[in-house]
Design goal:
The chain is α/β, with parallel strands linked by helices. The protein is 32% helix and 20% strand. The protein has five helices and 15 strands. The chain has a six-stranded mixed β-sheet. Strand 14 (155-157) and strand 15 (162-164) form a beta hairpin. It is globular. Its EC number is 2.3.1.30. Pathway: Amino-acid biosynthesis; L-cysteine biosynthesis; L-cysteine from L-serine: step 1/2. It catalyses: L-serine + acetyl-CoA = O-acetyl-L-serine + CoA.
Length: 177
């Protein structure tokens, strides 16, 4: 767990020490409770997993379905209002800000929530909807509504979200090759 505290300290300049993080960081609480709920859920103690998940939501304001798959070093900053659906998959070293939804678009069966690959940052209030993929290193702007895949290293902004490619940013800044 020591490496996780290092991640929190690295991504949040307000993080003071481990005791502060243990006592006052709802993202830390939510992830710890999700790990327990997920283990129960996958061990077919589905109701107990859902109960632990509900307790986590009550205590933190962060709703993570116990069936969601979460990788290593997820950082949830100011997590209030985050929703992560049952078939969502989150890779390693992802950052989610408050109010993010990784949700479905209806009552479809099977995979219905997003896949977030490694090293993705999702801005406050963003809604990522449906069985889409945010590829490695992509960034989602605050309040964006994303309903299509976001390619590797690109940024999605707006409602509905549009893709900004790294080379587009370089041209706009006058750094064309």
């Amino acid at each position: 767990m020591a490496s996780y505290f290092d991640v929190v300290r690295e991504r949040d300049p307000a993080a003071r020490n481990r005791l502060d993080m243990i006592l006052n960081y709802p993202g830390v609480h939510a992830i710890c409770l999700h790990r327990i709920a997920n283990a129960l859920y996958r061990s077919r103690f589905i109701l107990l997993g859902r109960i632990v998940s509900t307790i986590g939501r009550f205590l933190t304001g962060i709703e993570i379905h116990p069936g969601a798959t979460i990788g290593k070093r997820l950082f949830i900053d100011h997590g209030m209002g985050i929703v992560i659906g049952e078939t969502a998959e989150i890779g390693d070293d992802v950052t989610l800000f408050h109010g993010v939804t990784l949700g479905g678009t209806g009552k479809d069966k099977g995979k219905r929530h997003p896949t977030v690959e490694n090293n993705v940052i999702v801005g406050a209030g963003a809604k990522i909807l449906g069985p889409i993929t945010l590829e490695k290193g992509s960034k989602i702007g605050a309040n964006a509504v994303v309903v299509k895949n976001v390619p590797k290293g690109c940024t999605a902004v707006g409602v509905p979200a549009r893709i900004i490619r790294p080379e587009d940013r370089a041209k706009k800044a006058g750094h064309s090759n």
